[in-house]
Design goal:
8-stranded mixed β-sheet; 2,3-Dihydroxybiphenyl 1,2-Dioxygenase, domain 1; alpha+beta; 8 strands
């Protein structure tokens, strides 16, 4: 398994609309990707920052604001399938099994202190 870079950092938020307004207005960031429910209350937003991305997530049991699972780093790997096989061979527990989105593949694991880590690979 080879980690190449941070893919993104994700913060859990309690109100997606309010958070989006803050990041776009106060911080002058531009939302570059959005996967949002029809009512706009839950989903994920991404803001590209140089070669990295800041993501906001709302409505997922895996990311809960202020409950110890409110931030995670996504580690960009060279070979997603090899990384998943390696981690499974070590008996690592997956909080989110490997998942495919329109722009990436990812899986969520915990480190020994229950800090969440996403294993991630952008689609090319």
């Amino acid at each position: 398994m080879k980690v190449l870079d941070f893919a993104f950092v994700c913060y859990a938020v309690s109100d997606l609309k309010k958070s989006r307004a803050f990041y776009e207005t106060a911080l002058k960031l531009t939302c570059t990707q959005a996967w949002v429910s029809p009512d706009g209350a839950t989903g994920f937003l991404e803001f590209d920052l140089g070669s990295n991305t800041l993501a906001l997530g709302c409505g997922s049991d895996n990311f809960v604001p202020g409950k110890g699972r409110n931030v995670t780093a996504a580690l960009e790997v060279e070979d997603f399938d090899a990384a998943i096989s390696h981690l499974k061979s070590l008996g690592v527990t997956f909080k989110l099994e490997p998942t495919e989105t329109p722009v990436c593949r990812m899986a969520l694991i915990d480190d020994p202190d229950a800090n969440p880590l996403l294993i991630h690979q952008r689609k090319r």
